[in-house]
Amino acid sequence: MDNPVLQIFRLGTPWQTQDPFLFSVYHLDHFPKGNGDMGPDPTLLKGRNLGSDFDPSQKWRMYHGQSIPGFPYHPHRGFETITIVNKGYCDHSDSLGAAGRFGEGDVQWMTAGRGVQHSEMFPLLKDTEENPLELFQIWLNLPKKSKFVEPHFKMLWHEDIPIVEEENAKIKVVAGKYRDTEALSPAPDSWAADPENEVAVWNMHIAPNSEYVLPKGSAGINRTLYFYEGNPIQIKGKNIESGYGIALDPTQEVSLKTGNSVAHFMLLQGKPIAEPVAKYGPFVMNTEEEIHKAMEEYRLTQFGGWPWPYPDHVHDKDKGRFALYPDGKLVEKS
Questions:
Q1: How are beta strands 163-165 and 79-87 bridged, if at all?
Q2: What angle do CA 317, 321, 323 make, to 5 degrees?
Q3: Is the pLDDT score of 1 beyond 80?
Q4: What is the pLDDT of residues 54-65, one digit of tens each?
Q5: What is the mean pLDDT of the segment spanning 248-266?
Q6: Which residues pair with 202 in a beta bridge?
Q7: How far apart, in whole angstroms, are the C-alpha atoms of residue 224 and residue 31?
Q8: 232 near 240, Cβ under 8 Å?
Q9: How many Cβ atoms from other residues are within 10 Å of residue 34's Cβ?
């Protein structure tokens, strides 16, 4: 068998991705106890670059938050965000009037389409113990035909997301099909909504000192495996340390041998959209002219404005997991 590894690269911030994915970032923050107002003790904020706190040497970051960590309101157009919160919570609010609190394994899938503003804040809900956050955000491109669809978001609650448990592995199937197990349906206008595009998002934990075989896919798709935590693994006799991405030949099975700790992976794959990509921050279109038009429209309309009291809006501290949809439908979870 030929070597299934096409390329090995160091993981930066964000992670390097392949079409149809645009961006992927991993947040691991060991947030302290909350101060009663869902932020850290103000004395801990001294010396931090509030509003742009991304120092990777710190145990936790405020990102663009001033008193509560997170990302206050900002626009998106022309792509989708898949936000996986394995630990901690995310508070979502948007210009459609939709909102939610999700975490502890939940996933939010949002189609920005023609344009939406939203905020993503990380409330520190626990005051007597630390508030760890583990979060992935993945940007999945939209094809030209779908760039201007109506914005849409849906929740994939952790109780419903399929998790495949094999002898040596546990695979959280966020998108796509893993062996005979199919994920929940993605957003309706997504590139992932067509099974022929073979979009997959799998969060994989492989047991220590074991061998795991990743099933093969089809020719013509891009497949990247991100090794983000664990002791070195081996593929075809080559040692690979955590903090590296591996572009794989999708037509081959891949045998992974783990070290003496659990190995954590994220797998992203899909048929490339293979269209021109023009990007400027949170706008992703096909041409520079479309980018300029998106910026001008946002300047004039704010993509519907902001119906919430604050740019860094968070929900009531005692609120549980919930989703409030633009049509007024409310789903509450325990």
A1: unpaired
A2: 110
A3: no
A4: 999 999 999 999
A5: 97
A6: 173, 267
A7: 30
A8: yes
A9: 21
Q: How far apart are alpha carbons 265 and 160 in whole angstroms?
A: 21
- Encode pLDDT of 300-324 as tens digits: 999 999 999 999 999 999 999 999 9
Give bridge partners of residue 171 from the DSSP assignment. Answer: 164, 204
Query: Which residues are within 8 A (CB) of 254 and not within 5 positions of it... i.e. 6 or more apart?
Result: 4, 5, 213, 214, 216, 225, 235, 248
Cα–Cα distance for residue pair 225/17, rounded to 1 Å: 10
Q: Are residues 138 and 184 in the same domain?
A: no
CA atoms within 13 A on the CB side of 295: 10
CATH number, domain at 110?
A: 2.60.120.10
Domain boundary residue, one of 258, 275, 292: 275
Residues 111 and 151 in one domain: yes
Which tokens belong to 23? 């961006």
Copy the structure tokens of residue 38: 């869902």
Token pair of 181 as six digits: 């197990």
What is the chain's Cα-based Rg? 20
Cβ proximity of 91 and 45 under 8 Å: no
Residue with tokens 């022929």: 196
- Structural domain range at position 71: 21-45+56-160
What's the N-to-C CA distance of the chain in angstroms?
49
C-alpha 185/C-alpha 238 separation (Å) is: 37
Specify the DSSP element, H or E, that contains 228: strand 222-229
pTM, full prediction: 0.97
Q: Dig out the tokens for 121 from the structure.
A: 């804040």
- Angle CA(236)–CA(237)–CA(240) in degrees, nearest 5? 95
Which of 231, 248, 275 terminates a domain? The answer is 275
Place of tokens 């929900």: 315
- As for how many domains the chain has, the answer is 2
